[in-house]
Design brief:
single chain; 166 residues; mainly alpha; 2 domains; two-stranded antiparallel sheet; 5 helices; 2% strand
Length: 166
């Protein structure tokens, strides 16, 4: 067993990259040797690797996006900034989509009931559930891609995020 030279995680012998932070393992230390003490995050070392911070920009949407744009070591990292902006823009898109959906369904429900087609309401509710499920799955997918260190760009939203991230 060896230790990661970046995050100090325990790894198998001969591992080329750390499974936790993704850092290449050219200077990994063995458990018999001295184990470096964890230091407080500073300008030279951040608490999390950029891929973890990028993934954590998505769970609470614009809240975590803004948070990672304000936290000191991450607000300068282009990878984290991209995912934070993409999270913010995606949350705004979700909000606008739900408002438009509610307006459409509200108008459609009144028309369906007045036309005597109230049973079509049973089709609208599952569509709303599928839409929400798709939103949640997209969020998990973006978190996974960020955790793997990929800069996955959504159509329309991704280029805006890339432009804002610099």
């Amino acid at each position: 067993m060896i230790r990661c030279s970046t995050c100090n995680a325990t790894l198998n012998d001969g591992t080329a990259f750390c499974a936790f932070c993704g850092a290449p393992q050219t200077r990994a230390s063995s458990p018999g040797g001295p184990v470096p003490q964890a230091s407080a995050p500073g300008p030279e070392s951040s608490g999390m690797s950029p891929n973890v911070a990028g993934a954590l920009a998505y769970p609470l949407g614009f809240i975590t996006g803004i948070l990672f744009l304000k936290i000191d070591p991450y607000k300068y990292d282009p990878f984290v900034r991209f995912h934070a902006f993409q999270s913010i823009f995606l949350s705004c898109f979700y909000f606008l989509l739900i408002v438009a959906w509610d307006a459409l369904v509200g108008a459609l429900a009144g028309a369906l009931v007045s036309a005597g087609l109230g049973s079509l309401w049973n089709l609208i509710l599952p569509l709303y559930s599928l839409l929400r499920l798709a939103m949640v799955l997209l969020g998990f997918f973006l978190m996974y891609k960020a955790f793997k260190g990929e800069r996955f760009s959504l159509p329309f939203i991704g280029p805006l995020a890339a432009k804002r991230a610099g």
